[in-house]
Amino acid sequence: MKALLLEKVHDVAVEALRSAGLEVETVGTALKESELSAKLKGVEILGIRSKTQVTDKVLQENPQLVAVGAFCIGTNQVALEPAAR
Hints:
This protein is of the alpha/beta class.
């Protein structure tokens, strides 16, 4: 499985996922909707912080996603209803 971690998610999370056998790619910034959707091709796990917006469109274009982790306070940047589907 492959994970994409954005916005400088802490190195402890990167190492934990790698130790669990995941391939991990990191990007130090938030991505705009179209950039995010394109970057998610082949990714099953997404980790974000507060600036990335995981919209319904991003989720629809990437049905292979199995998890979105919010490494921040709250989840208002994730379209929760579509994510639950």
